[in-house]
Design a protein that fits this description.
- This protein is α+β, with helices and mostly antiparallel strands.
- It is built from ten helices and nine strands.
- The longest helix has 23 residues.
- The mean pLDDT is about 85.
């Protein structure tokens, strides 16, 4: 009981209501009138006016005629905070949920030279031969995340990449014909995902989608890997891809404010 009393005593109701007004304005970027804000916040007009004018005075809101809206200052503060937190800290909860839902591994990677490099990974319960940890490198040309990352290159950049890259066979299924790889990656760009079937390792299938920044550019990729005995390529596209796209959308929301 004492703890509850302390909690109530320390609770600043006016701050709570002010934050509520900010959330309401955030949901209405075109702005709201004083009356509309008061109605949505459950406040009197006088109370809403005090909160709105305080936000304007501190630079967190602007008034244009009869309408109030949030200013860019709040986004600036958010970016300052985000810059102090490791980028992939935000991706990990989404990836953990995906891995738990599918009972498979979920990873993220960026492009570095000829390779894609793991920057985050939630391992699945099933063992595969390739040792994959954060920092591990794999050839971009024959991996799902690598092909997604390559699909973000301009045609001329992709041509240069493939001309210089070491395109070596990893399994009997590895595609090493550079002209065919160009067509495959064009398909990835068109469809918005890549599915690689045992080209890296026999028994391993992987499906990947892009992570985009606020300009729409591909900055990373996220995938789900599975054993070929567990899912056919068609099943991966039908069952895993929608979940993976939802995961990517959640992570990309963070990239959009960077």
């Amino acid at each position: 009981m004492d703890g509850d009393a302390d909690s109530r005593r320390d609770h600043v109701t006016s701050l709570e209501r002010g934050l509520g007004v900010m959330e309401i304005l955030a949901a209405h970027p075109a702005g709201l009138t004083l009356s509309e804000t008061a109605d949505k916040a459950g406040l009197t007009r006088a109370g809403a006016r005090r909160f709105l004018l305080t936000l304007v005075a501190t630079g967190y809101a602007v008034q244009t005629g009869r309408h109030f809206s949030l200013s860019p200052r709040l986004l600036t503060q958010a970016r300052t905070w985000l810059q102090g937190v490791p980028l992939w800290t935000f991706a990990e909860p989404f990836m953990k949920e995906t891995a738990a839902t599918l009972n498979e591994s979920c990873s993220a990677a960026i492009l570095s030279g000829e390779d894609m490099v793991y920057v985050a990974r939630v391992p699945g319960p099933r063992i595969i031969a390739v040792d994959l940890q954060v920092g591990a490198h794999l050839p971009a040309f024959c991996t799902a995340m690598g092909r997604v990352l390559l699909s973000g290159l301009a045609d001329a950049e992709l041509e240069v990449f493939l001309a210089r890259a070491t395109v070596a066979r990893r399994t009997p299924k590895t595609e090493t014909d550079r002209a065919k790889l160009v067509n495959i990656i064009a398909g990835v760009r068109r469809e918005g995902f890549a599915l690689v079937d045992e080209e890296l390792e026999i028994g391993l299938r992987s499906i990947a989608v892009p992570l985009r920044d606020r300009s729409g550019a591909i900055v990373a990729a996220v995938n789900v890997s599975t054993q070929s005995a567990r899912h056919t390529p068609a099943e991966m596209e039908a069952q895993i891809l929608p979940i993976l796209r939802t995961t990517a959308a959640g992570i990309s929301d963070f990239f959009a404010v960077q």
